[in-house]
């Protein structure tokens, strides 16, 4: 099935070469102005004993495809899911899977110990364990 142009659908008329050229130039400018779209990971975030745990289903990637950045109050998970087969867009019946770069940042409910954080990817499920920092919110000062 050949794709019909939006111009033809809206106006019922044919595009001339000048209209096509203008549309292509506008599309090229827009693609340079906008960042590449990213998929957004779904996550569960909960506490378990002394840890904050982040769990995400990340099918189709390996540990080397992921980058996890941790600060004391935020975690960012980035990666890219590569399509291994080239399919002509006109051949799809359904196209619901996301291929390409993805990321997710999670603001943590309390400070964590970044040095002892651990991540595991098993059967398409990423689990990040972040030990909580137990810092006292008050400090007594000695007068010297």
User: Per CATH, which architecture of the largest domain?
Assistant: Sandwich
Order of helices and strands: HHEEEEEEEE
The overall strand count is 8
Please bin the fraction of helical residues.
10-25%
Q: Which stretches are low in confidence, meaning pLDDT under 50 for 5 or more residues running?
A: 29-33
Describe this structure in a few short sentences.
16% of the residues lie in helices and 33% in strands.
Could you explain the architecture of this structure?
- This protein is of the alpha+beta class.
- The protein has helices spanning 6-11, 17-33, and strands spanning 39-40, 44-48, 51-57, 66-70, 74-81, 100-107, 118-122, 125-131.
- The chain folds into two domains: 1-34; 39-131, Immunoglobulin-like (Sandwich), CATH 2.60.40.790.
- The protein has two helices and eight strands, in the order H-H-E-E-E-E-E-E-E-E.
- The strands form two sheets. The chain has a four-stranded mixed beta sheet with strand order 1-6-5-4, with no helix packed on it.
- Strand 2 and strand 3 (51-57) form a beta hairpin.
- The termini are far apart.
- The model is unreliable at 29-33 (pLDDT under 50).
Task: Detail the topology: elements first, then pairings.
Blueprint: H1 6-11, H2 17-33, E1 39-40, E2 44-48, E3 51-57, E4 66-70, E5 74-81, E6 100-107, E7 118-122, E8 125-131
Parallel strand pairs: 1-6
Antiparallel strand pairs: 2-3, 3-8, 4-5, 5-6, 7-8
